[in-house]
């Protein structure tokens, strides 16, 4: 399924990985929110962690150009160190409902912290209270 991506950290416009991985490969980019998640500091990048208590993460909904989609999916999986079924993965790529700025609900791929990473972050991670990677500065 060719879903858009919800990005919330270094892939957001203006961040360093946006230019490296998304520039020229997207058809659209728009502000969005990921409900049911919270954000933690990582070593130079954030982790979104599922949260049943109603947190929200701020980011962008990025739609890849059709001809760039397959290659972009491979690049992003590699960047996020996501390998399906590998317990050493830092992230899991999952489908989630995100909310666009105009109120539409969009199903998108989101890289959430892998289970072992999420457990560690919940215990002793540094929460980004605002849910916005940019606002942490």
Automatic annotation (TrEMBL):
Coiled coil: none annotated. Residues 5-134 form the Gamma-glutamylcyclotransferase AIG2-like domain. It comes from the Bacteria. It holds the Pfam family GGACT. InterPro entries: AIG2-like_dom, GGCT-like, GGCT-like_sf. This is Gamma-glutamylcyclotransferase. It comes from Streptomyces cynarae.
């Amino acid at each position: 399924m060719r879903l858009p991506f919800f990005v919330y950290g270094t892939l957001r416009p203006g961040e360093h990985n946006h230019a490296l991985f998304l520039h020229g490969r997207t058809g659209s980019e728009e502000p969005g929110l990921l409900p049911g998640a919270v954000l933690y500091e990582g070593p130079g990048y954030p982790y979104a962690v599922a949260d049943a208590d109603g947190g929200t993460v701020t980011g962008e909904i990025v739609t890849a150009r059709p001809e760039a989609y397959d290659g972009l999916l491979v690049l992003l999986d590699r960047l996020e160190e996501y390998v399906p079924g590998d317990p050493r993965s830092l992230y899991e790529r999952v489908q989630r409902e995100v909310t666009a700025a105009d109120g539409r609900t969009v199903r998108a791929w989101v890289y959430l912290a892998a289970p072992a990473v999420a457990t560690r972050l919940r215990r002793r991670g540094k929460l980004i209270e605002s849910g916005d990677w940019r606002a942490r500065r």
